[in-house]
Amino acid sequence: MTLSLVTGAWSYLGRSIASELLARGGRVRTLTSRRRPELDPFNGAVDSWPLQFAAGSEPAPGLLDAPAGVDTLYNTYWVRHDRPPRGQRGTWIAHPEAVRRSCQLLDAAKKAGVRRVHR
User: Fold this and answer.
1) First vs last Cα of the chain: how many Å apart?
2) pLDDT tier at 68 (50, 70, 90 boundaries)?
3) Is the pLDDT of residue 111 over 90?
4) Sorted alphabetically, which InterPro entries does this protein's record hold (predicted)?
């Protein structure tokens, strides 16, 4: 049984990907900035890790640990616009910062030996 890492499994796109992987009999780990929802859509089947980035170019220690043992990374984090969408709630991350953070995530996946990346 393969282990996949999905960013943002508590959000719209990541949730859809995680649901499909679980339906196919896979195991799923998520990197997320959100807490597990009170009504967990996966009934505890998704292992949740905090998505934390470092200020520099090197990945944060927790980001280096999350891809361990993972076969495939499904990266939904990079999806950004050049300005906040209308009605944006919470902190907005600009595209250049999202690119820098995505590079950290991809570096961590490479160091962990992740074989495939979908974005």
Assistant:
1) 22
2) very high
3) yes
4) NAD(P)-bd_dom_sf (IPR036291)
CATH architecture of 3-118: 3-Layer(aba) Sandwich (3.40)
Please check whether residue 95 is in contact with residue 87, taking contact to mean a CB–CB distance below 8 angstroms: no
Strands (E) located in 23-87: 27-32, 46-50, 72-74
What backbone phi and psi angles, to 5 degrees, belong to 14?
A: -60, -35
Q: CA angle, 69 as apex, 14 and 108 as ends, to 5°? A: 70
Distance CA 16, CA 21 (A): 9
Stated pTM of the model = 0.85
Q: Is residue 69 pLDDT above 90, yes or no?
A: yes
d(CA 32, CA 48): 7
CA distance 113 to 102: 17
Q: What is the pLDDT of residue 24?
A: 96
Query: Average pLDDT for residues 95-113, to the nearest whole number?
Result: 89
Predicted local confidence at residue 4, as pLDDT: 98
Judge residue 21's burial from the number of C-beta atoms within 10 Å of its C-beta, 0-12 exposed, 13-18 middle, 19 or more buried: buried
